[in-house]
Amino acid sequence: MSVSRIALMAIVASLAPAAAMAQSVPDTGSRLLFESRLRSETVDQQGFAEQAHALTLRARLGWRSPTAQGFQLLVEGEGVAVLDDRYSAPVDPVPDRPAVADGETIELNRAQVRWTGLPDTEVIAGRQRLIVGNSRFVGNSGWRQNEQTFDAVRATTTALKPVTLTWAFADRVQRPLGHEHPQGVWRGDIHLLQAEADTPVGRLSGFGLAIDLDNAAAQSSTTVGARLAGSRPLADGLSVTWAGEYAVQSDNGANPADYSLDLQAAALGLQTQRWSAGVGYERLDGDGVSAFQTPLGSGHAFLGWSDVIGATPKFGVRDLFVRGQTSLPAFGQTVRLTAEAHAFHDADGEFELGRELDLSASVPVGTHWSVELKAAHFEAEHPIYADTDKGWLILEYRY
């Protein structure tokens, strides 16, 4: 048994006494941080002789200090143990089995100082979680067992009401692949500036993101974009929702490519307290050599849960999708059911890439536990992709 697995088991074993201790102490501003996720993932992919079977356990343990003189400290460790390794892991490939991007690791997940000494302003410095907007361009890749974090300085202020300004600079990205992978840590200069404000037609945000990476030059780019999202009541308990987004991306830094490409996205839907349904469109441009990419974003929520279409292909991608969600009472709990269907084409709509159907059911169990069953079915229509079926069973605890 590896050192990382032993360490993680020790963290998990400490759950019961640590949680009991934290619950018995009055809330003075400090907090014990603990969460764990046990996940079984199965992948059946065309072209592989065997299925992938991955059983992984992720645990995070940390502490948040009370606030004193406007300062607050947060420290958190993260470990991932592999309990069933019949799959191709990021640093341990298995030729006859599909890949699952969750490998064994133990690392410092967050170590940050938060300062609120100025009115309506927050500054966070250190290793931290960055989630900007809907996480399309900058996110923590929370679906993966090993979370993506940034060594960064971030400042957010609402002093210029009604505008919220966010500025961030990062020079290191701890990616979900893990620090032992050659591309598990990106180093370079990342600059972000975002402004948000409520308008009569929804929340409007504009941003600029400049990425210049020392060890991943092909991912260096400059992106400028805007997003508008809002809702309006139609009848008692029924609302219409909408969202639109546009961004332009070009090469930056040492990127050997020369391009200027765009992203377009739109969605329209209906929602009540118990259900929502909508249609959407997303187009990431490609010129046959380069394509619009989102290397720092949380990709799993976009372009289908199968993650078959990860990096944008050189001819781009167009996604037309329908999505629905409902909540149903069952056994004294509320079960949330979600379904998505996608039709993928190249950016110009000239040929099909594939189709996908995604289904999930999740239910909370008590105050801290939740269970989720999830599946994705991808049918390929282009030779660069393969028919893929994925299934997940997830047990999660959050303290």
> Helicity, in percent?
under 10%
Q: Main β-sheet, in a few words?
A: 18 strands, antiparallel, barrel
Which whole number gives the mean pLDDT? 93
User: pLDDT below 50 for ≥5 consecutive residues: which ranges?
Assistant: 1-28
Termini separation comes to 28 Å
By secondary-structure content and strand pairing, the structural class works out as mainly beta
- Using the alpha-carbon principal axes, give the shape: globular
Number of strands: 18
Could you tell me the radius of gyration in angstroms? 22 Å
Order of helices and strands: HHEEEEEEEEEEEEEEEEEE
Helical run tally: 2
Percentage of residues in strands: over 45%
Describe the structure.
The chain is mostly beta strands and 399 residues long. It contains two helices and 18 strands. It is globular and about 60 Å long.
